[in-house]
Design goal:
Helices cover 49% and strands 6% of the residues. The protein is mostly helical. It has 5 domains: 138 residues, no CATH class; 174 residues, Lysozyme; 61 residues, no CATH class; 62 residues, Membrane-bound Lytic Murein Transglycosylase D, Chain A; 54 residues, Membrane-bound Lytic Murein Transglycosylase D, Chain A (Roll), CATH 3.10.350. The N terminus is likely disordered.
């Protein structure tokens, strides 16, 4: 069916709804339908010659509003079929007509339709955005390029990079060389703009272990939930948000999903920073037009998100013409070559580094996702400096298997005013470990006088308690890093009040190197 014919048919159907249907009567047209409630089914020939002729409009008992909603929903389903076949113009035409029908529903007369009307308007708006996004892919084969806008907001961020953040920009650019080749290759394969490879500069400064206040981690700054959604595993041994290659693949998947929702890259970037939910809510709150671009949303977004997009555009402007903005860029770092070997033995990186004659730092940087610098018990692909793979496999039997240190316990009697967090801090353990050791169901509920079993690692705390009976030479103790007055008191079987009185201390605060007199 031609597009003009489709329009005429849709207009006819609208007239049929508004002009011909009488209260209590019905107007029906035959449909080729599947099971009740399914999307109408037609053959390809039928769709080409009679695409919209299967829309049934039923008005019974004068329920005009509900019938308008049902018809709009049927049109939305038909648009979905057009879209899946690549008929993008027809899909948009049908969605436009569906939107018109929805706006004509009188919710004052039928308040029970308010939620339906809201939901369907949102569905149609979202579908139009998705179709526009897919149109960019179909027409260009490589998504629409990121528009290099220049305005006062972008100029302000350029000024920031030229002055107070100049060192950050230069250092981040230098670090980018380690990962840029890998990121650009992945973006090319996905058909995304290569300029997106510079997102980690403003996300993390190209620091693999960058951690934000919101617990976003890694080059691409994934929070745990978003990382999990896009396939980044996290357990006690590994956190794949820290792996540059795996995190890049996840970021590309996320960016593609956002582009399918919003259709323009500036809004996509805002969604990447604060989440698509917040951006969609902001779009809906405008009550202007559901196809507004990012700069229409700018003032209504959170400041950090609003600043994020011009900050990225400022980065692109500078990198495309450094001299214009007063930058002389150093040669970026080179990618570190490596090879991988698969091992099934749980071993410490420290032991492997010693056997291979490389530094622990070098090995850790190749395997940043290993949270404890220990390989998991399961099969694991370990990255090694080039040429070291066969060497490790030949020496693997000589490296001792690593096992988790057994926990030891001390006991603590709860005093007035104490909380689990304070007790955990005193013993250098976690609230979770104390809760688990004592089968506490309500972690905020402990009582004065309660005896708690405190799990501590066999290293630092066992040394503390093993030395209780030994006074230092001359009865004096020099404060070390990590000491607290409470720990020192426990170490020498005394209490903090006595230590404060003996040493004329006004507070419990100590400094490294301070000398304390110890009297039991």
């Amino acid at each position: 069916m031609k597009l003009a014919d489709c329009r005429y048919l849709i207009i006819f159907l609208i007239v049929l709804v508004f002009g011909c249907a009488m209260p209590g009567g019905s107007v029906k047209k035959n449909w080729n339908t599947g099971p009740a409630g399914d999307v109408p089914t037609t053959t390809n020939d039928t769709k080409n010659n009679n695409a919209a002729s299967d829309i049934a409009i039923v008005e019974e008992n004068g329920d005009k509003g509900q019938n308008l909603m049902d018809t709009a929903l049927d049109l939305s389903r038909l648009a979905q079929e057009f879209w899946s076949e690549g008929n993008l113009d027809q899909a948009i035409e049908v969605l436009d007509e569906a939107y018109i029908l929805v706006t004509k529903v009188d919710t004052d007369a039928q308040p029970e339709l308010i939620q339906q009307k809201y939901d369907l308007r949102f569905l149609i708006s979202k579908r139009i955005l998705e179709i526009y996004a897919s149109r960019y892919t179909a027409v260009n084969g490589n998504y629409k390029a990121i528009p290099l806008t220049m305005n006062k907001h972008v100029e302000r961020e350029i000024k920031q990079f030229q002055t107070v953040e100049r060192k950050f920009f230069m250092r981040s650019y230098k670090r980018s060389g380690r990962y840029m080749e890998m990121i650009v290759k992945a973006l090319k394969e996905a058909g995304l703009p290569e300029d997106l490879a510079w997102l980690p500069l403003i996300e993390s400064g190209f620091k693999v272990r960058a951690l934000s206040r919101a617990r976003a981690l890694g080059l691409w700054q994934f929070i745990p939930s978003t990382g999990y959604k896009f396939g980044l595993k996290r357990d006690m041994w590994i956190d794949e948000r820290l792996d540059p290659e795996k995190a890049t693949a996840a970021a590309i998947d996320y960016l593609e999903e956002l582009h399918n929702i919003f259709g323009d890259w500036t809004t996509v970037l805002a969604g990447y920073n604060c989440g698509e939910g917040l951006v969609l809510r902001t779009i809906r709150s405008q009550k202007i037009n559901y196809l507004d671009g990012f700069w229409d949303l700018y003032e209504k977004l959170p400041r950090e998100t609003a600043r994020y997009v011009p900050r990225f555009l400022a980065t692109l402007h500078i990198l495309k013409d450094p001299a214009k903005y007063g930058f002389i860029l150093e040669e970026p770092d080179k990618p570190v070559p490596y090879e991988t070997v698969t091992i099934k033995k749980q071993v410490q990186l420290k032991k492997i580094a010693g056997k291979l004659g490389v530094s622990l730092k070098e090995l850790s940087e190749l395997n940043p996702e290993l949270r404890r610098k220990v390989t998991p018990a399961a099969s694991y692909s370990l990255r090694l400096p080039s040429g070291k793979g066969e060497v490790l496999l030949a020496m693997l039997d000589e490296i001792p298997k690593w096992s988790t240190p057994k926990s030891s316990y001390v006991y603590h009697r709860v005093r007035k005013g104490e909380a689990l967090s304070l007790i955990a801090m005193k013993y250098r353990t976690s609230v979770r470990a104390i809760v688990r050791a004592n089968n506490i169901r309500e972690k905020h509920f402990i009582r004065v006088g309660q005896k708690l079993k405190i799990p501590v690692r066999g290293s630092s705390m066992s040394k503390v308690y093993a030395s209780k009976s030994k006074l230092p030479p001359g009865g004096k103790y020099r404060v070390k890093k990590g000491d607290s007055l409470w720990l020192i008191a426990k170490m020498f079987n005394t209490n903090t009040k006595k230590l404060m009185r003996t040493n004329n201390l006004q507070t419990t605060r100590l400094r490294v190197g301070q000398t304390l007199k110890i009297i039991r």
